[in-house]
């Protein structure tokens, strides 16, 4: 698949990423994932404040926008 500007790209759909925890590294233009039980919560750290939050799967889905 190619983007509008002709660059090669790969599109990963929901079947490939089902039950995966996905990390998008914008700065280094990289993507990674690992197996994960998506009904479980994850811990997220705020780099600026150092605070750690536990985020449940139901909260992630509710706040996703496309």
TrEMBL record:
InterPro entries: PEPTIDASE_A1, Peptidase_aspartic_dom_sf. Residues 1-34 form the Peptidase A1 domain. This is Peptidase A1 domain-containing protein. It comes from Salix viminalis (Common osier). The lineage of its organism: Eukaryota, Viridiplantae, Streptophyta, Embryophyta, Tracheophyta.
